Amino acid sequence: MVDFRALAIPAIIVLLVGGTISFFMAFSFYPEKHVNVKINGECYEFLDNAYAKYKKLQAEKELLIFRLQANAIGSPNTIIPVIFSGTGEEVDDFVDRYNINIITSQKIGANNNYIDKYVIKATMTKQDFERIINDLTIKDLDPLTKSISGSIGLQPNSYIITEQEGEQISLYSKDFMRNGIQQIIDASNANSSDYDGVKQAECRTKIQY
Q1: For 152-176, how does the pLDDT look when each residue is reduced to its tens digit (9 = 90+)?
Q2: Cα–Cα distance for residue pair 3/167, rounded to 1 Å
Q3: Which of 113, 132, 115 minimizes the C-alpha distance to 124?
Q4: pTM
Q5: CA dihedral of residues 37, 84, 143, 39 (deg, nearest 10)
Q6: Rounded to a whole number, what is the distance in angstroms from the first to the last CA of the chain?
Q7: What is the DSSP letter of 6?
Q8: What is the per-residue DSSP string for 15-54?
Q9: What is the signed CA dihedral for 48, 54, 60, 62, rounded to 10 degrees?
Q10: DSSP code per residue over 81-122
């Protein structure tokens, strides 16, 4: 069982940063077409349209977490550390567009000239970070179409560290997902004559809400 209440902000940031890059790469080769969830003691499998709704919900949750993180940082001119990944051309354009200061640039597969992908650690102002958030779309955050903007995450920093802030964001994100998943299930039940991709399943999943 995933214990969202126990997560603090640094943990969320690490998951977003590390998970964004590794999950993006893995998902590109092995795209999932379903997900199993457990909510209110009942287990379901989402396929087809229901799975598409679930992926959209996950992207919306990422946007919510980004906004909550940004709101926890003080002045618009505060310098914050970020991490993202993209091709060389994407990185150059992204850095220019959002006034990003690169600290380190690591090429993925440094000995492979056929891989044009870089992991960038950098700094930028809160104001410019919020510009990125406001420009993000669901497509940017979808693992199959994730853009360089959608790969961005905050590195651990001194501006968001309290346990209370971590618990608050964890609760908000969990409640958001729980409510969204319940709406997907309720919509399917309301149209029981039409298949919408929601199936009851055995309770084997670790994704609980």
Answers
A1: 999 887 776 566 777 888 889 999 9
A2: 11
A3: 132
A4: 0.73
A5: 10
A6: 9
A7: G
A8: HHHHHHHHHHHHHHHS---EEEEEETTEEEEEEHHHHHHH
A9: -120
A10: EEEEEE-HHHHHHHHHHTT-EEEEEEETTTT-TT---EEEEE
